[in-house]
Design goal:
By secondary structure, the chain is an alpha/beta fold. The chain folds into two domains: 256 residues, 3-Layer(aba) Sandwich (Rossmann fold), CATH 3.40.50.2000; 190 residues, Rossmann fold (3-Layer(aba) Sandwich), CATH 3.40.50.2000. It is 37% helix and 18% strand. It starts with a strand and ends with a helix. Bound molecules: alpha-D-glucopyranose (GLC).
Length: 473
């Protein structure tokens, strides 16, 4: 079957978080299963754009409100990602350096979605299913079904995957004029609490709705930033499919970012050499347990709890430890994390940036990865860590709960705690510290984790089954 993914991010063209990883890997694995998967995304000014060659496949124009939008669809020519990658170029609107965070993001992503549909309606070739991801692309099912110009694609089944229900793309009703002429009787599909809510609209209109873990779908029925009753109402078409990881990118045996490649067989030596590099780079003591946190420094990830939790853990534990943070986000959190550096020289470092290479080195060299998230739809970092033999220390929520078993439970390998609180984090860090000297046990946990199968293979197949069910609708 042929699948067209529509996404705001796709690694390595552009990535802000896990959505980029998913959109870069899922289509590749669907291709491997013998299907044709393609991705269309906005054309940002990224390194990948300039480093590759592109051909123009479509050029047209439409009006959005009172402005005329000219757009071009380009395609990467070498099939570098293992699938066809298309980008929509809209001069002055999409072609910027960052993915999100502009005042006119509503206009940018609405124009992107309309461009995709204008192209799709003209394309002689049609996919069997259109798979959209998060609110930036969630108006697509509604527009396909209700805009007069898109009648010839109105029967193509649609799937919406919710990677994060906190952000919903709210737009006020004045902006309804952006949407190409539509059947206004259907306004109720766009509306949620008196505003246009693209994510809610996608949940109402898509043939199937998925989240990136079964646990997160259950949680959304109870708390979904205002959409819980909608998820409950639409429960019959909702399900959770756990994300996989790209084993070609995340493989300690072939990873070119890390210093020493290793496998399950020589995990102890391999990790030790990688840890040594990190300890040399950041001036840490190699003998101490090394904790890392990698991710956006935002509330959802409970990054605001880290400064106090880390300070308390240092004060309360007899055995010291090293802690390395990588990420950027809320300025106050960045600052509070930076301030710890003066107090815990030689034990602590926060690296405030996004750095793909360093993140690989950290998964490879760390002993423990901390993820105290308040909300975690799937979480990929714990999966990357486990693949590199690093013990995840996670809060029991969403996808973390679905993928990590506590080492004291049967078949377990990680450390789990219940609340996103300073106390729970400190307690879990201390559990990790007491596990650290138990070398035999640790070796066993590492081997168990590295033997888990978390590749996209199974989940990519689950999506195919879901599409097949959709086309019967
Ligand atoms: C979002 C979620 C994260 C998930 C990712 C990919 O970034 O916050 O939990 O793993 O999407 O689906």
């Amino acid at each position: 079957m042929e699948i067209l993914h529509v996404s705001a991010e796709c690694y390595p063209m552009a990535k802000a978080g896990g959505l980029g990883d998913v959109a870069g890997a899922l289509p590749k694995y669907q291709q491997k299963l013998g299907h044709v998967a393609k991705v269309v995304m906005p054309m940002y000014r990224t390194k990948f754009l300039y480093a590759n060659t592109w051909e123009v496949v479509h050029k047209a124009a439409f009006s959005m409100g009172n402005r005329q939008i000219d757009f071009t669809v380009i395609k990467e020519t070498s099939n570098k990602l293992g699938f066809d990658l298309y980008c929509v170029d809209i001069y002055g609107l999409l072609d910027r350096e960052k993915i999100y965070g502009y005042d006119d993001d509503t206009e940018r992503f609405t124009a992107f979605q309309i461009s995709v549909l204008e192209w799709l309606a003209k394309w002689e070739h049609k996919p069997d299913v259109v798979h959209v991801h998060d609110h930036h692309t969630a108006l697509i099912p509604f527009m396909m079904q209700n805009c007069f110009a898109y009648r010839n694609i109105s029967k193509i089944p649609t799937v919406l995957t919710v990677h994060n229900a906190q952000y919903q793309g709210w737009m006020n009703w004045e902006k309804a004029t952006y949407i190409p002429a539509w059947d206004t009787w259907k306004w109720g599909l766009l509306d949620w609490s008196n505003v246009i809510n693209p994510l809610a609209c996608g949940i109402k209109c898509a043939d199937r709705v998925t989240t990136v873990s079964p646990g997160y779908m259950q949680e959304l029925m109870l708390e979904a930033n205002g959409l819980e009753s909608l998820f409950t109402q639409e429960a019959a078409k909702c399900s959770g499919i756990i994300n996989g990881i790209d084993y070609e990118v995340w493989n300690p045996l072939t990873d070119t970012y890390i210093l020493d490649n290793f496998s399950e067989k020589d995990v102890e030596e391999g990790k030790q050499l990688n840890k040594k590099k990190l300890c040399d780079d950041f001036d840490f003591d190699l003998a101490l347990p090394l904790f890392v946190f990698i991710g956006r420094l935002v509330n959802e990830k409970a990054a605001d709890l880290l400064p106090e939790a880390i300070a308390k853990a240092y004060e309360q534990s007899e055995t010291k430890f090293s802690f390395l943070i990588l990420g950027s986000g809320e300025p106050e959190v960045e600052q509070a994390l930076g301030a710890l550096q003066q107090r815990w020289v030689g034990y602590y470092h926060s690296q405030i940036e996004y750095n793909e290479k360093l993140s690989h080195q950290m998964y490879a060299g760390a002993d423990f990865l901390l993820m105290p998230s308040r909300v975690e739809p799937c979480g990929l970092n714990q999966l990357y860590a486990m693949r590199y033999g690093t013990v995840p220390v996670v809060r029991s929520i969403g996808g973390l709960k679905d993928t990590v078993i506590d080492f004291e439970d049967e078949g377990g390998y990680g450390i789990r705690f219940n609340r996103a609180s300073v106390e729970d984090i400190v307690y879990s860090v201390r559990r990790a510290i007491s596990l650290y000297p138990e070398k035999k046990k640790l070796r066993r946990l590492r081997k168990t984790m590295m033997g888990l199968s978390t590749s996209w293979e199974q989940s990519a197949a689950k999506y195919i089954d879901l599409y097949k069910a959709t086309s019967l609708v």
